[in-house]
Amino acid sequence: MATLTPSGLHRSTNRIDEHEIVRQLNDALGATLVAALAGVKSRQQPNDWAKSGGGMPRPDAWNRLQFAHQIWTALQEEEGRDIARRWFIGGNPLLGESTPIMAIREDRHADVRRAAQAFIDGDVDE
């Protein structure tokens, strides 16, 4: 069972190209949800960020994308792709019934990490 320690998650994400991180999130969640969690208005921006040589998001959006990728990777490895996606878009009791997408957008990273860990550990129902 994975433990979502900030240092371990941060290390794994830092070894991946920035554009690849966005490509993986776009593939997993779709550009619309990636734009929502990053806090940007344009649904096209995540597609632009995913292109090699494309622009990169501003620092606050980039922090959200890195964090989302860390949580996505851990959930996907433990629970599988479909369940990880449903977790990201479903209301979560540990987040006040907010979705993890919106909690990440609101920079509630510690809350999201705890909710993801509880899910992996089986401490809450989906």
Automatic annotation (TrEMBL):
Domain of life: Bacteria
Identification of the protein by name: Antitoxin Xre/MbcA/ParS-like toxin-binding domain-containing protein
Species in which this protein is naturally found: Leifsonia virtsii
Organism lineage string: Bacteria, Bacillati, Actinomycetota, Actinomycetes, Micrococcales
